[in-house]
Amino acid sequence: MSELQDLLVLEHVTKVFESREGRNVVAVNDVSLSIRKGELITLLGPSGCGKTTTLRLIAGFELPTRGRILLEGQDIAYLPPNKREMGMVFQSYALFPHLSVFENIAYGLRLRRLSKEEIEQRVRTFMALVNLTGLEQRKPAALSGGQQQRVALARAMAIRPRVLLFDEPLSNLDAKLRVALRAEIRQIQQRLGITSVYVTHDQSEAMALSDRIVVMNEGRVEQVGTPEEVYHRPATLFVADFVGRANFLPVEVLQLENTHAIVQFAGKRLCTPAHPDVRPNKPAVLMVRPEAIRLTSHALESNDALDGVVRNVAFLGHYVEYELTWDQHVLSVEDESLPGRLFRQGERVRWYFDPERAFVLPKR
Ligand SMILES: Nc1ncnc2c1ncn2[C@@H]1O[C@H](COP(=O)(O)OP(=O)(O)O)[C@@H](O)[C@H]1O
Ligand SMILES: [Mg+2]
Q1: Residue 301 pLDDT
Q2: Is 52 in the pocket of ligand 1 (CB under 6 A)?
Q3: How much is the average pLDDT of 166-181?
Q4: For labeling, which of 97, 102, 150, 229 is most exposed (least CB within 10 Å)?
């Protein structure tokens, strides 16, 4: 990728806090990232992994202990937040309760001393964009959570920020609204081409929204990749485990063949896609996603199938979730939902998978 496309660049950014007990907490540890113009990149990871701190460093609410933050080539690490031309949307909405919807959205425009006409026009444009037209004179308290977050979104976009920052904006909303609003955010972001950094701990939200995902763990970047890469070609065991669900099966790596490895699994040889760091005779595991496992009834003979026993069944309508015991392992399986096909608890089944849908990872 050319440098010119990189709008926002973090170079070896580290943030160390001093805790109340006087201990040093490394919240962000040597993070390097390039965010391209117009893309939506998500910082994804468990609570406490440094997502919010990274976002606050970008916004200017925190100063880095080490490293550089560049916006279109200019080092902004010590520029105050109001000089960075960034918009921010928080989980808590952070609206002014005494101001109307119109005035909330107009606030940043008045600070920038835009003309009355320009303010009027921009507020109307962005209210229409987030489907709030008609609610200009309402106070935030008279709006639903979803509507309040739309106001926050319109307010952040109305200043025409160079970068839009989101910190878990949908976490306070119920599941259905979350899914609807994330699709809307994605549509608006793409339509306007707003470069965005989006923080979430919700992996399905990250996958649904993002051009690229940055998976973080303990202040570090574990992987940067498209949702597909992160899901099917995880860089680390942590990513494989955090993004989606995964079964980890014991394998022995015999030899490498380009992008694949020949592995010994359950007494058989398989040729399966492999992580670039996999080496023969080094500890490794085979990742098989629950939806890659196929079940068949015991009576049907298949050479490649293994024996298992159904330990738990959850019929979820669009698929069936099984827990299967095999050897000393418990496997998660997502099976097709077909009429008359449900396997029962305690039933013996046979299971198999296409080796192309598995992935060998080094065990660290
Ligand atoms: N102001 C602060 N002072 C001390 N420690 C902090 C401060 N802000 C964050 N931390 C610590 O830094 C780590 C990362 O926090 P945060 O960036 O909020 O994580 P996330 O947003 O991924 O949940 C945590 O261990 C947190 O306790
Ligand atoms: Mg956070």
Answers
A1: 64
A2: yes
A3: 93
A4: 97
CATH number at residue 69: 3.40.50.300
- Residue 333 is part of a domain; what is its CATH number? 2.40.50.140
> Which atom of ligand 1 is least distant from the CA of 62?
1
Number of domains in the chain: 2
pTM for the full model?
0.93
Residue type at position 335? D
Q: Is the distance from the beta carbon of residue 27 to the nearest atom of ligand 1 less than 6 Å?
A: yes
> How far away, in angstroms, is 200 Cα from ligand 2 center?
8
Q: Are residues 103 and 150 both part of a single domain?
A: yes
Residues 6 or more apart in contact with residue 85 via CB below 8 angstroms = 159, 161, 162, 163
Range of the domain at 344: 245-362
pLDDT at 24 over 90: yes
Of 9, 3, 111, 93, which is closest to residue 57 (Cα–Cα)?
9
The pLDDT, as a whole number, for residue 1 is 46
> Is the same domain home to 257 and 180?
no
Instruction: Work out which ligand 1 atom sits closest to the CA atom of 219.
Output: 14
Task: Show which of 238, 254, 269 is a domain's final residue.
Answer: 238
Best mutation site among 13, 29, 53, 65 for ligand 1 pocket (most ligand atoms within 8 Å of CB): 53
Q: Is 178 helix (H, G, I), strand (E, B) or coil?
A: helix
Sheet holding 284-288, edge to edge: 268-273, 260-265, 247-257, 284-288, 358-362
Give residue-wise pLDDT tens across range 134-144: 999 999 999 99
Instruction: Say how many Å lie between the CA of residue 48 and the centre of ligand 2.
Output: 7
